[in-house]
Amino acid sequence: MSKTRKLPKAELHVHLEGTVSPALATKLAARNGMKLPDGIFKADGNYNWNNFPEFLKSYDTASSTIATAQDFSDVTYEYLASIAREGAIYAELTLGPDVVAMFGMGYREYLDAVTDGVDRARQEFGIEARFIICMIRHMGPEKALELMHTVDKFPHPLVVGVGLAGNEAMHHPKDFAPAFRIAHEKLNLGCTAHAGEVSGPQSVWDAINHLPVTRIGHGVRSIEDPELVKTLAERDITLEVCPGSNIALSVYPDFASHPLRKLYDAGVVGSINSDDPPFFWTDLAKEYDTAHEKFGFTESELVAVTRRAVETSFADAGLKADLQRKIDEAIAA
Ligand SMILES: [Zn+2]
Predict the structure, then answer these.
(1) CA 140 → CA 18, 161, 329, distances in Å?
(2) CA distances from 156 to 126, 129, 250, 273 (A)
(3) pLDDT recorded at residue 246
(4) Residue-level pLDDT at 72
(5) Phi, psi angle pair for 45, to nearest 5°
(6) Which residue in 171, 269, 256 sits closest to 211, CA to CA?
(7) What's the confidence (pLDDT) of residue 12?
(8) Which burial class, exposed, middle or buried, applies to 43 when counting CB atoms under 10 A from its CB (0-12, 13-18, 19+)?
(9) 164 C-alpha vs ligand 1 centroid, how far in Å?
(10) What is the pLDDT of residue 270?
(11) Cα 211 to Cα 222: distance, rounded to the nearest angstrom
(12) Phi, psi of 162, deg, nearest 5
């Protein structure tokens, strides 16, 4: 059991398809008449991969077990239930409609299915969730623009933000500025982009100089440029840090070399997150435990992290106030 289990938590950086546990992938594969390839799991039942291409392969295989609206609802419900049991009160789920579309599911059907899962989890656990619609960098700026037109055409009450993920070697953030402009100026949605993970600090500069982002996905490599860290703090742009993910993907060799503490002390950590938890052999509670055990975060610092996550979330003011109240209640209890 997690040591920080009782602490209230909030997660802002988690890819819905990246939350499918081996048990759930197995169940969905059976339900959909699919056979999972040999070697996808280790002897202990966890996902098995040893390098980046193998990680992508196991991720894609697990994602391909999610086929129907019921599946998406179940994935959402299972994930939110799992983090609610460990104290989470709020999650922003990153959704990739363009990827789902390749498997034949339309935008509205996808969002309705995920909403069904959110409704079930809320009813049972009181947890709230909102959506970030993610543009995929390697699919190109045209596709991103098209996606933002779809978001515009079909407003959804749980969609509160947009993001950019995918291969950082492809295209420049400024290529996506027109798509972000629609999200930011026309739709009034929050904006975030992955940067400073695989690529260095320049990728973060490129994102904050060309896109209306108030958050950066990962952004940990900002630490390599003091001027950048200062600028992030001044402009109140926060990082969605995912330490377990960074270690699993060898962004850093170990927690001792990870900059979480330094970034926190510089005031730029907005949230601690799990990214694609079962693929990185982690979960949200484990990330809080890691912050406590490896980085010396006290309980009150971890509560402050959760409060900052709520503040920097894309939820509306009413929900933010509710969530801060829930944090007060959890601490009082
Ligand atoms: Zn991510």
Answers:
(1) 22, 19, 45
(2) 20, 13, 37, 25
(3) 97
(4) 96
(5) 95, -10
(6) 171
(7) 98
(8) exposed
(9) 9
(10) 98
(11) 17
(12) -130, 155
Tell how far the Cα of 165 is from the centroid of ligand 1, in angstroms.
Answer: 7
Dist. CA 251–CA 259, nearest whole Å: 11
Token pair of 295, please?
């980085």
Residue 14's DSSP bridge partners are 93, 275
Per annotation, catalytic residue among 11, 78, 168, 197: 197
Question: Is 197 labeled as catalytic in the residue annotation?
Answer: yes
Residue 1: what pLDDT?
A: 54
SS3 178: helix
Q: How many angstroms is it from 109 CA to the middle of ligand 1?
A: 23
Residue ranges in the chain modelled with pLDDT below 50 = none
- Cα 152 to ligand 1 centre (Å): 23
Contacts 24+ apart (CB under 8 A), 36-39: 36/61, 36/65, 37/61
**What is residue 57's three-state secondary structure?**
helix
Residue 90 bridge partners (DSSP) = 10, 128
In this prediction, residue 101 carries a pLDDT of: 81
pLDDT of residue 84: 97
Which of 3.30.390.50, 3.20.20.140, 3.30.470.30, 1.10.10.10 would CATH assign to domain 9-20+66-332? 3.20.20.140
Alpha-carbon distance 165 to 217, whole Å?
8
Q: Largest Cα–Cα distance of the chain, in whole Å?
A: 54
126 contacts 79 by C-beta, under 8 angstroms: no
* pLDDT value of residue 333: 85
